[in-house]
Amino acid sequence: MNSSDSPQLDAEVLLANVLGTDRSRLYAHPEMTPSRTSAADFKRLLNSRRAGCPVAYLTGSREFRSMVLRVTRHTLIPRPETELLVEAALERIPGHGRAGILDLGTGSGAIGVAVAAARPYCTVTAVDLSTDALAVARENAAANGVANISFRQSDWFGNLHNRRFDAILCNPPYVEFPRSALPPGEIRFEPRLALDGGHNGTDCIRIIIFGALRHINQGGFMIIEHAHDQGDYVRQQFRINHYRDISTRRDYAGLERYTCALRP
To answer: Are 146 and 178 in contact (CB under 8 A)?
Structure first.
C-alpha cells in the first residue's frame, strides 16, 4: 500500500475487521482462511487504502483514550494529540466536581464523551453544526455508557443563547485549505467543515475565542487545540480579549498544540 507508512499493520487491521476478530487472534491462528465473500471485502478495503482512504474510515472506528469510537465520513478522525487536550482539561476539573463543560464542535464526540466518562459528576454539553456528526457522537456516548452528556445542533455559540459553562473545550477547524484543490494526504477524505479554518487556518479560532467570552463563568477556562505554527496567533487573540494566565502546551513531537486561558 504505497500511501501508507505501515502497510503490513494496515492490512492486518483490515483483515481482522473483515473477519470480525483482532490482530492477536490472526497471529494465534494463522490457519484461518477467509470465505470468498470476506476475501472480496478484504480486497476492496485494500484497494481503498491504496487510494489513501484512512483505516479508521474503512473499519468505522478509532480508539481514543481506551474507548472505541465510531467514525464516519461526517466526522474528523480523533488524533492522539487531542487526548492531551482532554488530559489538560481533567487536570483542571476536580474528580468530584460538578462543573458545566462545553465541547464546542464535538464531531465524533471524542472530547466530550471522554471528559464526561472521566468526570461523571459534571454535565457536558456537546455541540456541532453537522447533524450527521451529532448522530455519531450520540452513538459513541451510548456505546461507552456515558449518560452525563447532551447534544445540541449549533453553529458555534449560535444556539446556546445565554448559557454559561465552567470550561469550554474546542478542537476547531484550523487547516488552511488551498484555494482550488484539496490538501494532500489522508485529510482530503475528512469533512471539510471540520478542517477548513479559512485564511491562514485561523478564522474559526478568532471567532471562538471572542465568542466564548459570553459563555464562560467567572473563574472558568478555555482550552483550544491549534496547528503547531498557530500558537503565537492564539495567544495574541487571548490577550486581545483580555483572558488571563495564558499557557501553551506541546504535543508528543514537541510542537505547540493547544493553549489554555482563564476568563478575564
So the answer is: no
Give the model's pLDDT for residue 195: 92
Cell 477556562 found at: 221
What average pLDDT score do residues 5-16 get?
87
User: Distances from the Cα of 218 to the Cαs of 50, 149, 221, 264, in angstroms?
Assistant: 51, 22, 9, 8
For residue 160, pLDDT beyond 70: yes
> Whole-model pTM?
0.92
Residue 232 CB partners (closer than 8 Å, separation 6+): none
Contacts of 5 (CB under 8 A, 6+ apart): none
CA 51 from chain centre, in angstroms, equals 23
Location of C-alpha cell 486581545 = 240
What the block records as the C-alpha cell of 75 is 466526522
pLDDT (tens digit per residue) in 186-245: 888 999 999 999 888 999 999 999 999 999 999 999 999 999 999 999 999 999 999 999
Contacts of 118 (CB under 8 A, 6+ apart): 86, 90
Q: pLDDT tens for residues 14-31? A: 988 888 888 888 787 777
Residues 72, 133: Cα–Cα separation, whole Å = 8
Cβ neighbours of 125 (radius 10 Å): 21
